[in-house]
Design brief:
The complex is a heterodimer.
Chain A lengths: L3 E3 L4 E4 L4 E7 L6 E7 L5 E7 L4 E3 L2 E6 L4 E6 L8 E9 L2 E4 L3 E6 L1
Parallel strand pairs in A: 2-11
Antiparallel strand pairs in A: 1-3, 3-8, 4-5, 4-9, 6-7, 7-8, 9-10, 9-11
Chain B lengths: L4 E3 L2 E4 L5 E6 L6 E7 L6 E7 L2 E4 L8 E4 L6 E5 L8 E8 L9 E2 L3 E5 L1
Parallel strand pairs in B: 2-11
Antiparallel strand pairs in B: 1-3, 3-8, 4-5, 4-9, 5-6, 7-8, 9-10, 9-11
The chains are: A mainly beta, B mainly beta.
């Protein structure tokens, strides 16, 4: 079983839609979690950290459920520019473990 | 602030040949990482340096891959000899510390194709 598992998608949504991605992880000892964004043929970039209390950054909301070992990312009012692959990442001791990513395509 | 620099951007070689990639991290970042990203997968850590010492190389195929960071700044990753399954994007990243909570900043990557 992979340490971080994501639905690869693609999620095809119209502009303005709300879309949510989930990610499950194994090894509950992980302390830190993140969402990274990766545009086609580009490098990954940190989107946001994920905290147990949940956190929000504009149209993006991230949640962590340690009991069920999953992480979620909610995007409200989707923009064309949100089209990308979203990588779920867990932090182990001194290193990051990436999921394979969920692809989002926002269309007009 | 200048980002992580990598070269070359693209490389095409035949199997059994050797290849080397170069990375210059963000100034002042003590930790440097090399990742391999195969198409359709997330980045996989190959090796992590703290200054010029190796912190983790557990997933580096040491029979063919080697990496060094001699002066604690820039780094090279070498593959010798290359195999078809080495076709991937090789990403270099750096961070100011070693904890997994430290943001990692990635370079553009080197896209390697093995013929």
């Amino acid at each position: 079983r992979k340490e971080v598992e994501q639905d690869p998608g693609p999620f095809n949504v119209p502009e303005g839609a709300t879309v949510a991605f989930n990610c499950t992880y194994s090894n509950s000892a992980s302390q830190s979690f993140f969402w990274y964004r990766q545009d086609c043929r580009k490098e990954p970039k940190l989107l946001m950290s994920v905290y147990s209390s949940g956190n929000e950054d504009g149209r993006f909301t991230a949640q962590l459920n340690r009991a069920s070992q999953y992480i979620s990312l909610l995007i409200r009012d989707s923009k064309l520019s949100d089209s990308a692959t979203y990588l779920c990442v867990k932090g182990g001791y001194n290193k990051l473990i990436f999921g394979a990513g969920t692809r989002l395509a926002v269309h007009p | 602030e200048a980002g992580v620099a990598q070269s070359p951007r693209y490389k095409i070689i035949e199997k059994r040949q050797s290849v080397a990639f170069w990375c210059n991290p963000i100034s002042g970042h003590a930790t440097l990482y090399w990742y391999q990203q195969i198409l359709g997968q997330g980045p996989k850590l190959l090796i992590q340096f703290q200054n010029n010492g190796v912190v983790d190389d557990s997933q580096l195929p040491k029979d063919r891959f080697s990496a060094e960071r001699l002066k604690g700044v820039d780094s090279t990753l070498k593959i010798q000899p290359a195999k078809l399954e080495d076709s991937a994007v090789y990403l270099c990243a750096s961070s100011s510390g070693t904890g997994s909570y430290q943001p990692q900043h990635f370079g553009d990557g080197t896209r390697l194709s093995i013929l």
